[in-house]
Design brief:
Elements: E1 23-25, E2 30-32, H1 34-40, E3 50-52, E4 75-77, E5 82-84, H2 86-90, E6 100-102, H3 103-141, H4 143-159, H5 166-213, H6 217-221, H7 228-231, E7 236-240, E8 244-245, H8 254-258, E9 260-261, E10 265-269, E11 285-296, E12 306-309, E13 314-318, E14 323-328, E15 333-338, E16 348-350, E17 356-360, E18 365-369, E19 373-378, E20 382-389, E21 395-401, E22 407-413, E23 416-421, E24 438-442, E25 448-452, E26 457-461, E27 467-471, E28 485-490, E29 496-500, E30 505-509, E31 515-519, E32 527-532, E33 537-542, E34 547-554
Antiparallel strand pairs: 1-2, 1-3, 4-5, 4-6, 7-10, 8-9, 11-34, 12-13, 13-14, 14-15, 16-17, 17-18, 18-19, 20-21, 21-22, 22-23, 24-25, 25-26, 26-27, 28-29, 29-30, 30-31, 32-33, 33-34
Length: 555
């Protein structure tokens, strides 16, 4: 069921408690059905203000006049800065030269300011603090990998030293562990401080939201909206990694032979808040996407068909054979490369240097092809399924365990593990545990998007690996088969594009997982692998036929 179709609880009459309320007394603030209106206003009917239920709380609640208790204050004396009633204006209390203004005008002005402050808090300050917290989280998550590099460097030196230095070497490893604990502690401390600073901001936002809905004039016009305290961002924590400085090998003073570690240094760098500018280069979706070209790849089989873009002129494709083919976008075959193991590649990608990468399920290896075949990642106990290259030239790989009971996403820098994404905050698996395809792509906002075929969902986490949302398809009377996402990619607008294999269409979502539209008018035959180039042209592999269609779907 779509969200718009979810039944909502209707307002009931506050008098009879059963009938549906169609009216509202803005004086007494009660909901009323038609039969109960007469009973409600039978005394002092002139004081009551009955309005349609949708216009409730439209009447301002003015404060009572302290000088004339039977009057409400509808004006403000600008000179005295107090609320006054009409009798106060007529009295001799105020100098005739004093300037008066309607409280309604002050109220509306303040409401405008509150709205602006609310938007500033929601769209500027809170995202800035969230970015800081995410950055610290990533630093903490990558500590093990960075310190592993450090220990590896030391280990190379250790191999050249005689057994007599083992005790000294172990002592330094212990020192590294202590520094790592201190490093983590410093980052964690600053992360906790950031979260503490977010708490009053959220409280302020809550107060502003309540003020937006309030009709209390006095409380509203006297509310002081200050964002200066939040505009000064906390200082940036910069921790320099310790360095292992090896010495030339000698026979004496074994501790000195190993080298020394530079200390963990901590500095605070002043942050300057910069308001985010809206993206002005918006590419709108076309009402009718069109096929620009169809490339016959020759991968005519019933195995995974993949496509990846190197530039605006070239695409790489693969299928159920050992051949990985490079085509000009006009359809001319330019190059054919065969896998090292003689097995079909499960997925392909191209890095920023133009090197081709592919997953080999048989050897549990990710290979890099440029001049010669190079093994860059060899897995133990896991099988690589799908992969993508990030904007920072890291490699994201989806994989499943050999017993097919676990799945995860791992981020690599070269062959070094930088990040592992497997569980949510409650310790539950983020991805289905079977070995089915899990195509992956990184968004422009650095979210990690996985088309989890086994779960029938697109699973999106942020850069730190925290779950943002799951998309499980969009209801349509013409798309009556279960949602099975295969290939996935993202475009310049951070839109998510995924192939719905069984329903013969493409789903396009916004960066927050909201369904935007289908591409289903291009005569697609079981779409599988997808990618977009720098101009947001979409390339779609068709299962069985092996054809690749180039589609224009945005302006």
């Amino acid at each position: 069921m779509e969200p718009d179709c979810i039944p909502q609880d209707v307002a009931r009459c506050d008098l009879c408690k059963t009938a549906i309320a169609e009216s509202y007394c803005d004086f007494c603030h009660v909901s009323l059905c038609k039969p109960c209106i007469g009973e409600h206003i039978f005394d002092e009917y002139d004081k009551h203000k009955i309005v349609p239920i949708l216009q409730r709380k439209s009447t301002l609640i003015y404060p009572k006049c302290k000088t004339h208790p039977n009057k409400t204050c509808e004006y403000q004396c600008k000179d005295c800065n107090i609320s006054i009633c009409s009798d106060c204006i007529a009295s001799k209390q105020h100098n005739k030269e004093h300037e008066f203004i309607k409280l309604e005008e002050v109220f509306n002005t303040k409401k405008t300011h509150i709205q602006r402050f609310t938007e500033e808090l929601e769209k500027q300050f809170l995202p800035a603090y969230e970015d800081i917290a995410n950055d610290l989280g990533i630093q903490i998550a990558s500590l093990d990998g960075e310190y592993k590099k450090l220990i590896t460097t030391m280990s190379k030196q250790k191999e050249e030293i005689h057994r007599e230095v083992d005790n000294a070497f172990n002592q330094m490893v212990k020192e590294i562990d202590e520094i790592k604990v201190k490093h983590r502690s410093i980052l964690q401390k600053h992360l906790d401080e950031i979260k503490q600073l977010q708490s009053p901001m959220l409280q302020t936002l809550c107060a502003l939201n309540e003020m937006k809905e309030s009709n209390e004039v006095y409380a509203t016009i006297n509310y002081s909206c200050k964002t200066e305290a939040f505009s000064k961002l906390p200082p940036k924590v910069i921790l320099s990694m310790p360095k292992f400085i090896p010495n030339q090998i000698k026979r004496e003073e074994f501790c000195c032979l190993i080298g020394k570690l530079s200390p963990l240094s901590t500095t605070l760098e002043e942050r300057v808040f910069t308001a985010k500018k809206p993206n002005t280069s918006v590419r709108e979706l076309l009402d009718e996407p069109e096929v620009l070209n169809t490339i016959k790849t020759g991968h005519n089989d019933v195995y995974p068909c993949n496509v990846t873009c190197f530039n605006e002129e070239q695409i790489w494709t693969s299928g159920g054979t050992v051949d990985i083919k490079c085509f000009h976008i006009q359809g001319v075959l330019q190059k054919t490369i065969q896998t090292k193991s003689g097995e079909m590649p499960f997925d392909i990608a191209v890095d920023t240097t133009g090197a081709l990468l592919y997953c080999d399920l048989k050897t549990s290896t990710v290979y890099e092809l440029q001049n010669d075949q190079t093994e860059i990642i060899v897995l133990q106990g896991w099988k690589p399924i799908n992969l993508c290259v990030t904007s920072s030239d890291d490699l994201l790989v989806t994989m499943y365990s050999n017993d097919k009971t676990q799945s995860k996403v791992v981020r690599y820098s070269g062959s070094t593990v930088k990040q592992t994404i497997q569980f949510d905050d409650e310790g539950q698996p983020l991805y289905s545990r079977n070995g089915l395809f899990k195509y992956i792509s990184e968004n422009r906002n650095l979210d990690i998007c996985v088309a989890d075929l086994g779960a029938g969902a697109v699973v999106v986490v942020n850069q730190a690996g925290k779950l943002r949302f799951r998309y499980t398809g969009h209801f349509s009377p013409t798309k009556n088969k279960p949602f099975k996402p295969y290939g996935i990619t993202t475009d310049s607008q951070s839109r998510i594009v995924t192939a719905d294999h069984d329903n013969l269409c493409i789903h396009i979502l916004d960066a927050d997982g909201q369904f935007l539209c289908y591409i289903d008018n291009c005569d697609l035959s079981y779409p599988w692998g997808v990618c977009v180039d720098s101009n947001d042209s979409l390339f779609v592999c068709e299962y069985i036929t092996g054809s690749v269609k180039k589609i224009r779907y945005s302006k």
